[in-house]
Specification:
heterotetramer, A: alpha+beta, Barwin-like endoglucanases, five-stranded mixed sheet, 12 helices, B: alpha+beta, Aminopeptidase, 2 domains, 15-stranded mixed sheet, 10 helices, about 30% helix, elongated, Arginine_N-succinylTrfase (chains A, C), acyltransferase (chains A, C), arginine metabolism (chains A, C)
């Protein structure tokens, strides 16, 4: 069984191995044992409520219960920019027009911004190569939204994710070469690493503070602003399906997009419903449900802060008021018969028993003109 | 003889021909259309009329002078003074300044050059519109035309500001490209350099307020060609530049917003022509020998300036050949001002 | 009957009378016959497709068919900032922090922005005093969203509304006095009027271009940024209920908020459905529907661009696939039996026959922790 | 006699006592903690040692001088020179400039004053840390302490920049309020003026880069009190200010970022002490009569400067009373430099 649970101290080696194989590009989780240890400690302090929930770092592990090993990780930082200054560029437009001359020019412009300060960030998604596919990435990503939904008061109304921007195989970023390097006099990877280590005062010291007019940058640099690295395209697609939008904020180094969503608009949150747990001893008969629904999986989570758990069950376990779980699954989730659990579909299968009524409203929608 | 005198409506055709014979760059202070130029001459005529009045330093007077060959009556050059740059509107420049971006922790210290939009030279007296028949470049007539303006300032000092500035044409390649414009202005004004330059001469400067990017510009983001052009004078302007340097003009932090050419600055009262000029009474000299010098006389619309040889200037008596009297339209005993060439 | 239709040339006098009684504060519709005439002409050109739909000004009249008079108006400008430059301040935050000194300061900052350029604006809502109440304001406002929904391709994905900011009875705006006046040397009403007349190049010439740090402004001015005039509070509330959010953009003169929404998130759009018209000759029996639904009203619109019409009918006219309209209503809408119309509830009555299924999903939501 | 000489570790207590006796403002260049001050003296000792070496203008030398009463051995004043302001980090100032906001159509033209963060004075030579027993203000010793630094610069000219600047304390009310700080800096630094000022003296300037608002500031949005304080010197600094003006220092466009006090600027080679100073050989004078002048001798750590009367200075011979020789630690025939008081 695969189950989501809070990260633990003994996950360090598994985490280190994953960080190592991820290589560059994941600046929030560099392959640095001491730093990872610090992150785990912060996460433990958060779940054990030794730090304010609003200042917490929520790291979730995907555990393979057979292997008894963490095979993936994902996280939420409750607030960014609390101890350090959090920078983005905001892609804005400057319009200059002269009616007298009939000239009207729009100049895309980057403004240095701290506007994401105090916002919750979803971050640090890593999945072991051995466990790619089968919706495990989705589970790791979307379990966070179930947590966000359950404990909204600890998070900001809006959450965001920074997506890795465009760079080549050698780690060269076109935007960095055209802009950052002019001011920092170092390689992108070095700057990115320094920034990832939380050492951000050099940004305040070296960063250009005045707006950057994009037409002054070479085409190659301009074209990557707001674009993601090819490796990150699937993650972006997943977040977009979840309701995240690009709203003009980009990374100051590589121009990667920030995508954001209001918690109440996130699909997982919108589609979540409650059910009462029933424990069953036998598998449901196949003919109880239609074939299509049979294949889809449902995420189920308990309502615990300290011992938060999520796993998936087949959709045909879900009834109108109840959900029937096997005893091992119920134990893994730490719930008993009669407890309330929360569920959401794992994949966007178009239709599943829990949600069919909602979709019906749209069935009559015809295209007109 | 060569004579500098106020421009008259009748000089229109000659000035137009001159402006057409020269490159495009002039246009920013000298329009190339009949109507606009006629208006400019008319403005100058009014300025010379008002120059004796109660005009305060707030009102802009825009003087236009021509260089005439008195033997032929040909007009071979033109030059102007705006008593107050911007004439009530902002006078736009970039001011080049440096910020130091230093990180103590990283042990890094970078000098970051920045161009700030600036109006700091607004209201300074501006020498402008200098245009001369290329054949005369570097000649005595060339010097006369340029410096006659300073003789006029010396004789009408209260009309002018304590600082005088001159814009020098910036770098332009042989095929007409202006690297600074191509790297910066073109993106915002959406027109070629020549068009912008023409508008700058012909219209109100409102279009600059409307179209110029309001924020400072990082030099490092300009193209290398544009960076190289910052504060560089066009090679054609060498003679003018050197003459102005001899006068005491110096390039400072200010650049032209279109081509990044240098703006030369000087304290008006320190200009060589003004410091070295002497007033005296006109007397005849029996010979053509003597030191060459600029001599001017007459006020306002009667102002005239020429080059002549001068024999003595002791005791306030200035002895020059009588033909110079005629050229200036003066008689013995009239007040004149001289300055050595 | 009250019906929404495109504004017509002969509405000028009614419009002028409404503009006069509205007084200051409605800068887009000043009581100036020539200007109003120009607006009507622009709207006519738009509906008659004599100008590009993307550059159009869509003005709708609320006509009282008994009085045969326009008693209200509302509008959509398809794109702002096309001929002129459209300015806002963006309320942003500047963070300065020194870890060494343990200082962390957030400074709210206004940045001059043209970012609403090319966005559709809903504007110009005016209702005759004689027709206030009874949902007429709602109809005038929300009919625009039905139009937006039907002709989305002519509009931007996001639409916005500028809300009137705080000023006192004499028309003094605290933000203007502290900020604008320092640069413009004129009264708020004068600047507002100049701006309303479309003469905006003076803004480019006189407006401060560098960011404004709010702590440098007096409390009175700071406190009105993003706040609406008391008279505008109901309109703001209506738009918020419709899904519009304040996202940091404010008016450069009085600091009034800009609220914005993606078209697909607007409640009227989300709740709209199609029905087939049936013409009935008798009223439906009261016992056909439950009492609560009986009281609620439904907006119905046709699908015509040039002859767009909206009116309201009782909710009990709505069936599962059809809507039954009386002949006069069908005629007013320009539809016949068998035509497709679009409907949306006029008020948020919590529940109505058309939408009850959608709400059911949320019924089981319990509060947990 | 009064003597100015390089500060020594043994001067620590005396300097500390001086700094404590004066207002808080000094601290920005003179720390008031034992340890920090000891480090600063140590830094100065090294600077005097290195002053003869191959040090280029890139490396900062931070000299500290003391004013000693040779009769009592008391130290009654201290003054410093930083060879390069900012010493590798930015030297922060505001540069006051004006933009013209004009609307042609409305016939409006407003002058908008703006404070730009500037590092343009970075690397200029900075006179700093001037502190003197209040009893001596305006006396000959006062002039000696201030100008001795210029005598040192004259004797070690290659170590210093072409421009020299001095920061003058700005307006502070009797109850310690600094209007400019209260209107601007306080909002961003979140500390009172004195704390910021102390940090500025004691730490690296990283905190300024981190906390100072990066964008230009509109003067019109400052409080009226802060606007009135722009470029105004604290009344207590009058004697210093006048002395520096006599030297040729002028207030320009630059202001202190904390209190908006003026930054005085001068071309190093135009400073009166430097222009008017003469080198010569030391000779005895039989009398105490003669013109009062500053006299200095010795290089690097041996540098000494005092005030004496001088009888003649013809033919390069400088005749001063023998007690001045002793004070300078020199003998007949040694090279000295004099400059009239």
């Amino acid at each position: 069984m695969l189950i989501i649970r809070p990260l633990q101290d003994n996950d360090l080696e598994a985490l280190y191995a994953m960080a190592q194989s991820a290589g560059k590009g994941l600046t929030t989780l560099p392959a640095d044992r001491e730093l990872l240890q610090r992150k785990i400690r912060h996460a433990r302090d958060t779940f054990d409520q030794r730090c304010a929930p609003e200042a917490g770092l929520y790291l979730f592990a995907l555990e393979d219960t057979e292997l008894q090993r963490c095979v993936g990780i994902s996280g939420i930082q409750a607030r960014v920019g609390l101890d350090e200054v959090f920078y983005n560029y905001r892609l804005s437009v400057t319009v200059n027009a002269s009616r007298e001359l009939g000239v009207h020019v729009r100049t895309p412009t980057l403004h240095l911004s701290n506007d994401m300060t105090d916002t919750s960030e979803i971050c640090s998604l890593l999945l072991s190569d051995s466990h790619r596919g089968g919706g495990n990435g989705l589970l790791l990503s979307r379990c966070r939204f179930m947590f966000l939904d359950q404990f909204r008061r600890h998070f900001s109304e809006k959450v965001f994710a920074e997506m890795r921007g465009v760079s080549d195989k050698e780690g060269r970023s076109p935007l960095w070469d055209a802009l950052g390097r002019q001011f920092f006099d170092m390689d992108f990877t070095e700057a990115d690493m320094l920034s990832g280590l939380g050492n951000k005062s050099f940004i305040a010291e070296l960063m250009p503070k005045f707006p950057i007019y994009l037409p002054m940058l070479p085409d190659e640099a301009r074209s990557v602003i707001g674009r993601v690295h090819d490796n990150t395209a699937p993650a972006l697609k997943m977040l977009q399906a979840e309701g995240f939008n690009f709203n003009g904020m980009v990374d100051i180094f590589d121009g990667g997009p920030v995508v954001e969503a209001f918690v109440h608009n996130i699909r997982t949150v919108r589609e979540s419903t409650d059910r009462i747990v029933m424990i069953r001893s036998i598998k449901p008969a196949v003919d109880q449900v239609d074939e299509q629904a049979d294949r889809s999986e449902i995420m189920v989570c308990n309502g615990s802060f300290q011992n938060f758990r999520v796993t998936t069950v087949p959709a045909n376990c879900v009834g109108i008021e109840t959900i029937s779980l096997s005893q091992p699954v119920a134990s893994a989730l730490g719930v008993e018969a009669g407890d309330r659990v929360r569920l959401a579909p794992l994949k966007d299968t178009g239709r599943n028993p829990t949600y069919s009524r909602r979709d019906a409203d749209h069935a009559g929608r015809s295209s007109r003109g | 003889m060569w004579l500098v005198r106020p421009a008259q409506p009748g000089d229109l055709k000659a000035i137009l021909a001159l402006a057409e014979g020269i490159g495009p760059r002039l246009s920013s202070t000298l329009p190339r259309k009949d109507e606009a130029l006629a208006a400019k001459i008319e403005q100058s005529v009014r300025a010379f009329q008002n120059a004796g009045g109660t005009t305060g330093p707030d009102e802009t007077l825009r003087f236009l002078f021509v260089l005439e060959n008195t033997d032929t009556g040909d007009v071979r050059g033109v030059a102007g003074i705006d008593s107050s740059a911007g004439h009530g509107q902002p006078f736009y420049n970039y001011r080049k300044d440096a910020l130091i971006h230093a990180s103590h922790e990283l042990g890094v210290s970078n000098r970051v050059d920045v161009l700030y939009p600036s109006h700091a030279l607004t209201g300074h007296t501006l020498l402008c519109a200098f245009t001369i028949d290329p054949e005369l470049k570097g000649s005595e007539a060339f010097e006369l035309l340029s410096r006659a303006r300073l003789m006029f300032i010396a004789s009408h000092r209260p009309l002018f500001s304590d600082h005088t500035v001159v814009e020098i044409q910036g770098v332009q390649t042989e095929n007409g490209e202006v690297p600074f414009w191509d790297s910066l202005g073109r993106h915002f004004f959406n027109m070629d350099f020549e068009t912008a330059d023409q508008h700058s001469g012909a219209l109100s400067k409102t279009f600059i307020a409307e179209l110029m990017p309001p924020n400072p510009i990082y030099v490092t983001l300009l193209t290398p060609e544009a960076q190289a052009a910052l504060g560089q004078a066009h090679e054609k302007t060498r003679a003018t530049y050197e003459l102005l340097q001899r006068e005491g003009f110096q390039a400072g932090a200010y650049l032209d917003i279109f081509d990044a050419g240098p703006v030369l600055e000087a304290r008006t009262d320190s200009l060589k022509t003004i410091v070295s000029s002497l007033s005296g009474k006109l007397h005849g000299s029996p010979t053509d020998d003597g030191e060459r010098c600029l001599i001017s006389g007459g006020i306002q619309a009667q102002f005239r300036c020429t080059v002549t040889s001068m024999q003595e200037a002791l005791t306030g008596d200035i002895k020059v050949p009588v033909k110079a009297w005629h050229c200036l339209g003066l008689d013995a005993g009239d007040s004149v001002r001289v300055s050595p060439c």
